[in-house]
Write a structure and sequence with these properties.
The structure holds two protein chains of two kinds. Chain A is of the alpha+beta class. Chain A has one helix and nine strands. Chain A has a five-stranded antiparallel beta sheet, with no helix packed on it. In chain A, strands 4-5-6-7 form a four-stranded antiparallel beta sheet, with no helix packed on it. By secondary structure, chain B is mainly α. Classes of the chains: A alpha+beta, B mainly alpha. The A-B interface holds A 46-48, 51-54, 76-78, 97-101, 103, 110-115, 117, 123-128, 130-131 and B 179, 182-183, 185-187, 190, 193, 196-197, 209, 212-213, 216-219, 223, 227, 345-352, 362, 365-369, 372-373, 432-433, 435-436, 439, 443, 446-447, 450, 501-504.
């Protein structure tokens, strides 16, 4: 669409976008949209749909010689299992700060990486840990103890 | 038969005979760089060299202008590139196999141990040089208009360099590697500290997603190792090379290195040694004055304070490259790259320490995972990255500690920077922090009020005081950047020498055994 030079345009009749400009912008826009969407599609790839992780539920027997409040670490697991007069309980030894493995000590648990400290029941005593060490679900079948690392229970639950 | 019957054949023999000289002339079109003219074409005719300008100002060649720090960083990068490619011949990115392959490289592969040591030392040199280079650019006020964007690119280069160092020491799959991956992935997950406190984790678990994408799984294993390998040998080096190209290109487009206003007079006595190139002052500029920003060298005076980049700049650069190589190789002979025991997912080392350049970070992470690992570093990158846009003064550009306040303010800022960081650390070490006094305090309070954030706030407040005291934004920038460097040094030294088992404070590593 052309207008005569010098002719004043009414604000109700603004100069339209030139046809070539419009087509150029449309082409650019569709290209940008295509690239944008394909990048979004590509980002789906690095997010794994399935991850092979070892079973989080495991069974074992506590040694008869285990004293009250002495930690038993099931082989290959980051869990501390205790037995006292009220029953058996398991506390995760993965630090809630940044995932190092805490050690049992006279005060409870201490983390070697950034100095978090926990009491014997897993409550934060000092340091940067944001949460208490979770208590894990324990079930007993005779002398066989089963711990499920994926489900936590209320602090103080003993079976 | 007549001789001219064979003329084509003669020509063929002649062409065959002169192939070497013709190939030489086809590759090196300008001829040997013996005159100023051929020296110029030596540079602008070569795709690799033409990032340099044809002539370089004498001020830029002064040792005190740059101390060669940018070139040292670049040289160290090229050394890591070459040695890194060599290490890739034998390295296998799979847990345990990776550890064995590093052992093979160290003990069996011919020169493998030397190459690994050089790779490691060049990476360390690169980290040191890139930090010092940043300090040089800052203290000579070289970040100002029109170089604001290049300062920003420089921060990108610093972050990428640290990312390369981090992904690099993960690859041997020893104890250091395994626990660094664990801690790094959990720092990526630490936005949960905020979303948990606000009860938003169920809705949008940004932290969990970041960790999952980084590890490719929910545990640290083979997927994680191959991802960090990919980052280390492909994604980050490509990103670094792209940023470097922009960084160097911008130096030229922004008019070379930052110079003081009176740089021409300052180098006048040196300039006399070089015969004048332009005997008459030209009245016209000789390049695309309308396109290229900044003052053109030919306005009002001839470019007689410049010398041909070939040989003056190139020989200086090659000298720095040789020196850097010498330092890296020398250190590689003196000290081996560490390799700890094979990764053990059940028992971290005690203390589990990162390499020295991350120990300052480890120290503030020991106050809060999110603020120490993400919040404060982001604040530093954004806050210091935006300095060119916050300080738009022109006083003192190109001079060491130039601008209001100057060296005196920097000296005081060193005192403030050291004393306040030591005081905050001493307080936290002696008296503990909020959790020890109020066991039930909400986590969100500790996330935002911890020794790291308190120190950041002190530095910010002091810088604002400096802006008021000298009525200058440059003074505030000098105060802030100096404090940042001092805090980095103090935290790194404490993390390195004064933290022992369980990250407790010890006066000396000799006392660790008492534990």
């Amino acid at each position: 669409m052309t207008t005569n030079a010098g002719e004043k345009q009414s604000r109700f009749d603004p100069e339209p976008v030139a046809r070539r400009d419009f087509l150029g912008l449309a082409a650019l826009g569709s290209m940008a949209a295509a690239f944008g969407l394909s990048i979004l599609g590509m980002l789906k790839l690095p997010k794994a749909a399935v991850s092979a992780t070892p079973a989080k539920k495991f069974s074992f027997a506590l040694p008869d010689t285990l004293a009250d409040n002495e930690a038993f670490i099931p082989p290959g697991r980051n869990v501390a299992v205790f037995r006292d007069g009220e029953g058996v309980f398991a506390i995760s030894t993965v630090c809630t700060h940044l995932g190092c493995i805490v050690k049992t000590s006279a005060n409870g648990f201490d983390c070697p990486c950034h100095g978090s400290g926990f009491t014997k029941d897993g409550t934060v005593r000092k340091g940067p840990a944001p949460k208490a060490l979770p208590w894990l679900k324990v079930s007993r079948n005779g002398s066989t103890i089963t711990v499920d690392e994926e489900s936590s229970v209320k602090t103080g639950t003993k079976v | 038969m007549k001789a001219q019957d064979y003329s084509a054949l003669n020509e063929f023999w002649n062409n065959l005979r002169t192939i070497p000289s013709h190939v030489y002339r086809a590759v090196f079109r300008g001829g040997p760089p013996k005159t100023d003219r051929t020296r110029s074409s030596f540079i602008f005719g070569n795709v690799f060299l033409h990032l340099h300008s044809v002539r370089t100002h004498l001020w830029s060649l002064r040792w005190s202008t740059t101390m060669g720090l940018g070139i040292i960083t670049t040289a160290a990068f090229f050394i890591t590139l070459v040695t890194g490619i060599l290490l890739m011949f034998y390295y296998k990115p799979y847990p345990e196999v990776a550890y064995q392959s590093i052992k093979d490289i160290h003990f069996i592969v011919p020169t493998g141990r030397l190459m690994r040591n050089i790779h490691r030392w060049a990476a360390n040199v690169m980290v040191v040089a890139v930090i010092l280079h940043m300090a040089r650019a800052f203290y000579t006020a070289a970040y100002r208009n029109p170089r604001e964007f290049n300062w920003f690119i420089g921060w990108g280069l610093l972050v990428t360099t640290l990312g390369l160092s981090f992904t690099g020491y993960l690859l041997p799959w020893d104890q250091l590697a395994f626990w660094a991956i664990t801690i790094g992935a959990n720092i990526a997950q630490s936005p949960r500290e905020i979303t948990d406190a606000l009860g938003l984790t169920q809705l949008m678990d940004i932290g969990g997603l970041q960790r999952e994408i980084l590890l490719g799984s929910d545990t640290v294993g083979d997927e994680a190792l191959i991802r960090f390998y990919l980052l280390h040998v492909m994604i980050l080096p490509l990103a670094l090379a792209a940023l470097m190209a922009v960084h160097f290109w911008r130096i030229r487009k922004d008019g070379g290195l930052a110079k003081p206003e009176d740089a021409d007079e300052l180098v006048a006595s040196e300039a006399k040694e070089f015969y004048p190139v332009f005997t008459d002052v030209p009245t016209k500029t000789y390049h695309l004055a309308a396109v290229v920003k900044g003052k053109t060298p030919a306005v009002g005076s001839g470019p007689e304070y410049t010398v041909p980049s070939m040989p003056h700049l190139f020989y200086a650069e090659l000298g720095v490259l040789m020196l850097t190589t010498l330092i890296c190789v020398g250190l590689a002979f003196i000290s081996d790259a560490p390799l700890k025991e094979l990764a053990n997912p059940l028992v971290p080392e005690n203390p589990a320490k990162a390499p020295w350049y991350f120990l300052g970070l480890q120290e503030i992470v020991s106050f809060s995972a999110f603020m120490g690992g993400i919040g404060i570093p982001m604040l530093c990158v954004i806050g210091l990255g935006l300095i060119p846009f916050l300080d738009r003064e022109t006083d003192g550009t190109g001079e060491w500690f130039g601008g209001p306040g100057g060296w005196k303010l920097v000296k005081w800022s060193v005192v403030v920077g050291f004393l306040s960081s030591i005081a905050v650390e001493a307080f936290a070490i002696r008296f503990g922090w909020l959790r020890e006094w109020f066991p039930d305090i909400p986590q969100l309070v500790i996330t935002f009020v911890n020794p790291g954030t308190v120190l950041t706030a002190i530095y910010a407040a002091y810088s604002i005081w400096a802006v008021r005291r000298y009525n200058s934004t440059r003074a505030g920038a000098l105060a802030l950047f100096t404090c940042f460097l001092c805090g980095f040094i103090v935290l790194t030294v404490i993390g390195t020498y004064f933290r022992g088992p369980n990250w407790d404070f010890f006066w000396s590593p000799a006392d660790w055994n008492a534990h």
